[in-house]
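User: Teach me something about this protein's shape.
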Amino acid sequence: MARRTERGATPRQRRPAKKVTQRRSNAPSKPEKTRLKRPKRSDAPRSGRPPPLPILYLLQHLQAARAALVRLSYSPLHSLITAAVIGIAIALPTAFWLALDNFQRATGGWEDGAPQISLFLDRGTQDSQLHDIAGQIDSDARVAGVETITPEQALAEFRAETELEAALELLDENPLPPVLIVTASTDLDPQEVGELANELAQNTHIERMRLDQDWVNRLHALMSLTERALGALAIMLAIAVILVIGNTIKLTIESRREEIEITKLIGGSNGFVRRPFLYEGFWCGFFGGAVALLLTEAARLSLKEPVQRVADAYTGDIALQGVGLTDTLVLLFGGGLLGLLGAWLAVGRHLKIIEPR
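Assistant: First, the predicted structure itself:
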């Protein structure tokens, strides 16, 4: 009985109690559950409220634009070739338009003041009468401007441009009459310019009127033909840009077909799937416009020296004008809009075909 009391159940029950406490100490404690905290969203406001719908919509578009730009950087060679093809297509009408604009500036063409009507007045016309007649003519809506040239100014200009100064000193009086150079409005066609010249010639102080009507007709016809041809070329090349970008976006859609199916399977709308492709087309057109700008400026710089030699042989007052700030923005964002249109047509056609199986 003594041994049974020494080997009682009490010591044996205490040892499992120690093991139980050890197992409990090895088991995960309750405070460890509180360590799994919910991650905070960086784009959520501190108040915990979601951003307003316009801001959220803008953030989604910014994210899609950035993702499309990053996706283009994954294949730089392919993106560069696409931008080069689009840039060449945009650069052709841009270069022709720039050449036409410089031609008009060089010849004093329809854009920068031509046609001009020269009115020669009586030599006895006083300067005050000359300015009064110029003011009356300038008030006409069909007139863009009037320049007055007094006999003294005409004689000084004649002396500067010729080597007859010694012969002019022998003259008793100035033989040159006062002149009015009337610049017609660019909105007038050649027939209206002729009617304006005939009306101005009816003034009693005007002895003679000069207008090269045939030159005006030829210039107007040439400019109209060139502008019409330039517009047709621009339309054809714009269609080519749209087709190139549409084909590029089509290949991109086919390469991401499984991703589009999964996105639609989990509830993604067509607008959500369409957005990155639209921005990808916009970036292709935007970079194509940048390439067109570089090509146009390179062509202008290469022609600068030959044109200057031609100018020195004739008037010496010709300078090639480049693409300005407004035209630069038109090139960049015009190319982007063409890319957006091409992507829209491609995505709208092929996105309906891709559906989750």
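Now, about its shape. The two ends are 81 Å apart (CA to CA). The longest helix spans residues 270-313. If you'd like, I can walk through any region in more detail.
User: That's plenty for now, thanks!
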